[in-house]
Write a structure and sequence with these properties.
mainly alpha; 14 helices; 342 residues; globular; two-stranded antiparallel sheet
């Protein structure tokens, strides 16, 4: 056990060093766009991590999680727009200050999650899935209808990214640091949460809700708190995504985005801490490079519809790699660990 723990600690240290050094590695390759791609991966990994709290630990399969990402994204975008136009939003001036707009995005997303969760959590199974989807689509069309903020075309951050003292988010490298730190802190927080009494109740809820009720623990408040936490963290990812792209559109809330997040969680490993991160890395790298690969080999149909490969891929993961990429990676780790031990 000690060998395994030491090996895992060494592995995490090595991964940390690689992540810290990645921007310089990208510069050495003369491929600076890789830093921007990595930032996008960390942002979506954060969104997938928040969804994993519901799916992997509470057993709540939400098909509307992109709604909270989109709400957080629009909060930052709208505040930036009012700053540019020098007008008020709900009686308050707009702002580009990151220490104001990013926490505010989390709060608003958490409040939206509270309202939706209060209704959705009274149902289970397919009804829960469909109601979360319905609310997400309602919010999608709500933002489409906001012509003042670009409607279907979306909204540009005309003055650039948020301002944070000590950081120049206009530089992709510093946006990378912010995204990576946000993902690291969220992972640490959720891991600590899972080891608390609250986390133990969520685990028990996923295993057997009826038994939990029988011992006198009401599941509804715990599920609602988990829903709000997941919504707030998704709002954080949306705020970072708007800063990263300097743009926000209703597409951020579309139900297909929720599907993408679910694929990341399933692909990486439901109920694991590294799974959503691995799933986001693989999904977004395939999204980035698979169309180019299909174009190079002349499969132009697949270059336009590259997501077709995810059907067989997910079937293969479910059939042959229970636990997703996390299980595959750590199975190899154990083999290497055993070799070192011998």
């Amino acid at each position: 056990m000690m060998v395994s723990e030491n090996f895992e600690a060494r592995l995490m240290l090595g991964v940390g060093i690689l992540l810290i050094g990645f921007p310089w590695f990208a510069d050495w390759l003369d491929e600076p766009y890789l830093v921007s791609t990595a930032s996008r991966i960390w942002i979506y990994a954060l969104a997938a991590m928040s969804l994993n709290l519901l799916v992997g630990f509470a057993g709540l399969v939400s098909f509307g999680h992109s709604a909270y990402v989109g709400v957080g994204a629009y909060v930052v975008g709208i505040l930036a727009w009012h700053q540019y136009e020098e007008t008020n939003f709900l009686g308050l001036p707009g702002t580009l200050e990151g220490f104001i707009s990013i926490p505010f995005a989390m709060i608003v997303s958490g409040i939206v999650a509270l309202g939706i969760g209060a209704l959705c959590l009274r149902t289970r199974g397919i009804y829960f899935i469909m109601i979360t989807l319905a609310f997400a689509q309602m919010l999608f069309y709500f933002f489409v209808s906001l012509e003042q903020y670009g409607g279907d075309d979306g909204l540009m951050m005309m003055d650039g990214r948020n301002k944070i003292p000590g950081l120049d988010l206009g530089e992709d490298r510093q946006m990378y640091w912010l995204s990576l730190v946000a993902l690291g802190l969220a992972t640490w927080f959720l891991r600590r949460l899972s080891m608390s009494r609250f986390g133990m109740v969520l685990h028990a809820l996923r295993q057997n809700e009826t038994r939990l009720k029988a011992i006198g623990v009401p599941p509804y408040p715990y599920m609602l708190v988990a829903f709000v936490i997941a919504g707030a963290l998704a709002g954080l990812s949306g705020a970072l995504l708007t800063n990263h792209m300097e743009f926000v559109s209703p597409d951020f809330l579309h139900w297909t985005r929720s599907g993408d997040l679910l694929i990341m969680v399933i692909l990486g490993g439901i109920g694991t801490w590294t799974g959503p991160i691995l799933g986001a890395i693989v999904f977004l790298l395939l999204e980035e490079f698979l169309p180019l690969l299909f174009q190079e080999i002349g499969l132009y149909l697949f270059s336009e519809h590259w997501r077709l490969v995810f059907g067989p891929l997910l079937i293969g993961i479910v059939l042959f790699a229970k636990g997703g990429l996390h299980a595959l990676v750590f199975k190899q780790m154990k083999g290497v660990d055993g070799a070192f031990a011998n």
